[in-house]
Specification:
The protein is α+β, with helices and mostly antiparallel strands and about 210 residues long. It is built from five helices and eight strands, in the order αααββααββββββ. Helix 2 runs antiparallel to helix 4 and helix 4 packs antiparallel against helix 5.
Length: about 210
């Protein structure tokens, strides 16, 4: 068992693994950049950089590849084992140790940001303030109810509950605190409501003009 553990440790901490991971990282960056010709930045980011496994299509070929998420996780393990734990002690290795610690910290902080942060923006003019922000990518349906004291109570429906309500497909949403059912259809991502002109037709849902 000890021999097997030693082999696993040597494999995960090897320079060869580090080189292979960096090659994959460069390949994913290149493919992800080319993919932006056909897909948006958000979709490319999800497919190539926030995934563990992906399928890249080159014409009729479907090529399985490790996602950048998996590559960076393995690279973090490789740096910790090979660049920090296995590093021989000595005054000449201090700079190498600092460099590896810095890279490991950047990878770890990126992992924390990916899974434990929310991105958004707040648009403010002079003398304005706000305690809320708007997400770049996530949407929600908010139903407000006025309370007797003049305040408002919000019922929030997350995007995951109505994401499949595309086109003519209808999804019925209900909750114990809401005295009616909500029917959702025609959901379109990354859109903005605009008035429909009288002189042209559009291929998206039109509601009250």
């Amino acid at each position: 068992m000890r021999a097997i553990g030693t082999r696993i440790f040597d494999a995960l901490s090897s320079i060869g693994l580090c080189i292979v991971l960096l090659i994959f990282l460069g390949l994913l960056t290149w493919l992800g950049t080319l993919e932006q010709v056909h897909s948006g930045l958000y979709d490319v980011q999800k497919k190539y950089f926030e995934s563990f496994i992906l399928i890249h299509r080159a014409g009729p070929l479907a090529i399985p590849l490790p996602g950048a998420n998996l590559v960076l996780c393995l690279l973090f393990v490789n740096i910790v084992l090979g660049g920090i734990i296995r590093l021989r002690k000595g005054s000449t290795t201090a700079g190498i140790l600092v460099a590896h610690l810095g890279i490991a910290f950047l990878l770890f902080s990126g992992f924390v940001k990916l899974y434990h942060s929310e991105d958004g923006h707040v648009t403010l003019f002079e003398d304005q303030s706000s305690d809320t922000f708007q997400s770049y990518y996530r949407w929600e349906i908010a139903i407000t109810e006025e309370q007797p004291d003049g305040r408002y109570k919000e019922y929030l429906i997350p995007q995951e509950d109505f994401l499949d309500a595309r086109g003519a497909r209808r999804i019925t949403l209900s909750a114990a605190d809401i005295p009616f059912d909500l029917e959702v259809s025609g959901f379109v991502e990354n859109c903005q409501p605009l008035p429909k002109g009288p002189m042209f037709e559009v291929d998206v849902p039109v509601v009250d003009g």
